[in-house]
Amino acid sequence: MKLAIDELQFNQAGLIPAIVQDETTGAILMMAWMNRESLDQTITTKEAWFYSRSRQELWHKGATSGNIQAVSSILYDCDGDTLVLLVTPKGPACHTGNTSCFYRALDGSPAPKATMLSILETLVLERKEAPVEGSYTNYLFDKGIDKILKKVGEENAEVIIAAKNTDRGEVIYETADLMYHLTVLLAEKDISWDEIMQELKIRHKK
């Protein structure tokens, strides 16, 4: 690792840009700056540390919010002047509460596929923590686990029926309904989609 660090090209301020990527979903979460010390801290603790140019000090991602990023690998590009941190996030990367800092498109196009499920999960969790009058999601949470399980069962049956039919659009529509209700179920049980993806990753390795 020390040899690789010596190959890096820090800028005149002693900094190097670091792109943070969710190792499970592939979503780009954020970009920040690192200096030699924050990089050493990241390698030692296996948690993301950066350098704040505005405060001119190191900062441990999630130290205040609890949204720590566990680092599994650090990649560097062919020129040695940019890093990619592969992480398992413990919460949203963005201070706005969004899963990723890159949640807006200049042309207003939909969010990338890799983050759409995370965006849905974030919205469901927001409804759980801060109920909104008239919200169907809050209706489900208010009714409790039995109602949620009933809806998951119904939507699962709808997917099966749709798959027996010839309308491809119907399968897509009903599967989206199922994914939404599964997201509500997982939120009710305090389980994240990241945990599900991690389990799939473990099975893939096997």
Keywords:
two-stranded antiparallel sheet, Helix Hairpins, 7 helices, elongated, alpha+beta, 2 domains, Ubiquitin-like (UB roll), 206 residues, four-stranded mixed sheet
Which helices and strands, and how do they pair?
Elements: H1 2-6, E1 16-22, E2 28-34, H2 36-45, E3 49-52, E4 57-60, E5 69-76, E6 83-89, H3 113-129, H4 136-143, H5 145-164, H6 168-188, H7 193-205
Parallel strand pairs: 1-6
Antiparallel strand pairs: 1-2, 3-4, 5-6
Helix pairs in contact: 3-6, 5-6
In the residues, how many domains can be counted? 2
CATH superfamily of the largest domain: MazG-like
Q: Can you give the helix content as a percent range?
A: 40-55%
Please give the CATH class of the largest domain.
Mainly Alpha
Strand content: 15-25%
> What's the average pLDDT?
91
Query: Which residues form runs of ≥5 with pLDDT under 50?
Result: none
List how many beta strands DSSP finds: 6
Q: What's the alpha carbon Rg, rounded to whole Å?
A: 20 Å
Brief characterization of the structure:
The protein has helices spanning about 1-5, 35-45, 115-130, 135-145, 145-165, 170-190, 195-205, and strands at about 15-20, 30-35, 50, 55-60, 70-75, 85-90. The protein is an alpha+beta fold and about 210 residues long. The mean pLDDT is about 90.
